Automatic annotation (TrEMBL):
Domain 6-phosphogluconate dehydrogenase C-terminal span(s) in chain numbering: 178-466
Keywords of this entry: Gluconate utilization, NADP, Oxidoreductase, Pentose shunt
Quaternary structure and interacting proteins, as annotated: Homodimer.
Organism classification: Bacteria, Pseudomonadati, Bacteroidota, Flavobacteriia, Flavobacteriales
Enzyme class: oxidoreductase
Gene3D superfamilies: 6-Phosphogluconate Dehydrogenase, domain 3, N-(1-d-carboxylethyl)-l-norvaline Dehydrogenase, domain 2, NAD(P)-binding Rossmann-like Domain
Protein name: 6-phosphogluconate dehydrogenase, decarboxylating
Segments forming a coiled coil: none
Pfam families: 6PGD (PF00393), NAD_binding_2 (PF03446)
Family membership noted in the UniProt record: Belongs to the 6-phosphogluconate dehydrogenase family.
Pathway(s) the chain acts in: Carbohydrate degradation; pentose phosphate pathway; D-ribulose 5-phosphate from D-glucose 6-phosphate (oxidative stage): step 3/3
PANTHER family, per database record: 6-PHOSPHOGLUCONATE DEHYDROGENASE
Domain of life from the UniProt record: Bacteria
Provenance organism: Leeuwenhoekiella marinoflava DSM 3653
Length: 467
């Protein structure tokens, strides 16, 4: 009974995570029903003296020191409930279960309440960084009982990514706070991915940049204010040769994007909260449009498209950089706005500067920009929207002329930039003190007596329109 940490699910993520725990000198025991996965773990390199695994649930739970700290890295959904039921008869009061998957936050709340009744502490902990992150240091977003967290804290702090020596993990709040934050992380991830991909399209269609040039452009951007994991890997993607034929792999990949649901959940829940996240919404819609490949092929033949307007290569590259920087800011602003609101609605009591800090390394949306974002929220913990942060006004203002020019150029050239134009239009609307929604109020009152308020006097009004 002397293992510090238990891990259920020895797939790629689980295997990598447990080896990471062992590398940090904690004794870790794995459990998986599949003997091959148990064997595979033992064949991996790493601090193998500190790792063991079994297909027997009794062997697994008996190996763990009290209170047991058991992390699940299994697919989200019913399997999590099944694993919980398998574990339950073997657990003691005070034991801790941590769900490291992308579980839907209300499932986490349900499980937390169910297990609390049985004396078991349940955590939903988002883990970001993919397979490599799990092995070398992910960003971890745990939520659950604060007191019980003290048992997990040393392990999570050791295994997490570090930014300037600071661990990219923090107890974010009670119940599903961690899962919720990870969900919005993924929503932002969808936004940034959409933006990086449509800027690629713009550069390719406008001035015909080839893959080598695209590599150089993204690589250069990654050394500047756009420094981020997603820009970095995009640069790398343009260089990859096709392993099954000639040319570059990127040109052979089918343009239909899959999704596992976290981006959609972010959008859906933003709607429930009444917080606008149009750049995330559009990123989800674009994956859906991409999936309609056969229809797109038919539609493409039905309509004419203008030839892209002539533009200087350096000019469009510069416009693209300004636009991507602006739109990245907007994607984070929308996601963080949602988090700030969810924090009140679900009583998570989130600290936005801490969230921005633990996203600075390890996770998929890590970016130089997060340093500025965390500073903005440190300066004002109650900031409703990043666009209201004094430190962001000049950053955003400086890009606007270019962004407007880019969106106009793309529209006139028939190049879709839905992420960028949604970001710009969100900005234009959010920063307008007067919007045309007075007309909508008038329409509602006109056809349905829904009433309206006035700008010049208190009260609720109804008019017999046209009379
Ligand atoms: C991460 C990622 C990860 C997610 C993938 C795939 O933070 O490491 O968000 O959790 O599963 O990004 O998501 P989709 O299949 O929905 O694109």
């Amino acid at each position: 009974k002397n293992y510090d940490f238990g891990l259920v699910g020895l797939g790629v993520m689980g295997r990598n995570f447990i080896l990471n725990v062992a590398d940090n000198d904690f004794k870790a025991f794995g459990y998986d029903l599949d003997q091959e996965k148990v064997d595979a773990l033992k064949k991996e390199g790493g601090n193998l003296e500190k790792v063991d695994a079994s297909t027997e649930i009794e062997t697994f739970v008996e190996a763990l020191a009290a209170p047991r700290k058991i992390m699940l890295l299994v697919p989200a959904g019913k399997i999590v409930d099944q694993v919980i039921e398998t574990l339950l008869p073997h657990l003691d009061e005070g034991d801790i279960i941590i769900d490291g998957g992308n579980s839907f936050f209300t499932d986490t709340d349900r499980r937390e309440a169910y297990l609390k009744d049985k004396g078991i502490n349940f955590f939903g902990a988002g883990v970001s960084g993919g397979a490599e992150g799990a092995r070398k240091g992910p960003s971890i977003m745990p939520g659950g009982n604060a007191e019980a967290y003290t048992h997990i804290k040393p392990i999570f702090e050791a295994v997490s990514a570090k930014f300037n020596g600071e661990p990219c993990v923090a107890h974010l709040g009670p119940k599903s706070a961690g899962n919720y934050v990870k969900m919005v992380h993924n929503g932002i991830e969808y936004g940034l991915m959409q933006l990086t991909s449509e800027i690629y399209d713009l550069l390719k269609k406008s001035v015909g940049l080839d893959n080598d040039e695209l590599h150089q452009v993204y690589d250069l951007w990654n050394k500047g204010r756009l420094q981020s994991f997603l820009v970095e890997i995009t640069a790398e993607i343009f260089k990859q040769d096709d392993d099954l034929g000639d040319g570059r792999l990127v040109d052979k990949i089918l343009d239909k994007a899959k999704q596992k649901g976290t981006g959609k959940w972010t959008s859906q829940n933003a709607m429930d909260l009444g917080i606008p996240v149009p750049t995330i919404d559009v990123a989800v819609s674009m994956r859906e449009i991409s999936a309609l490949k056969e229809e797109r092929i038919v539609a493409d033949k039905l309509y004419d498209r203008p030839a892209p307007l002539p533009i200087d290569k350096d000019k469009i590259i510069a416009l693209a950089e300004e636009s991507l920087y602006f739109a990245f800011i907007i994607a984070y602003a929308q996601g963080l706005h949602q988090l700030a609101d969810a924090s009140k609605e679900y009583e998570y009591d989130l600290d936005m500067s801490v969230i921005a800090k633990i996203w600075r390394a390890g996770c998929i949306i890590r970016a130089g920009l997060l340093e500025d974002i965390s500073d903005a929220y440190t300066a004002d913990k109650e900031l409703p929207n990043l666009l209201l942060a004094p430190s962001f006004v000049d950053k955003v203002q400086g890009t606007l002329a270019s962004v407007r020019e880019t969106v106009a150029y793309a529209a006139q050239s028939g190049i879709p930039v839905p992420g960028l134009s949604s970001a710009l239009n969100y900005f234009e609307a959010y920063t307008s003190s007067r919007l045309p929604l007075n007309v909508i109020q008038a329409q509602r009152d006109n056809f349905g007596s829904h009433t309206y308020e006035r700008i010049d006097r208190e009260g609720v009004f109804h008019t017999e329109w046209g009379k």
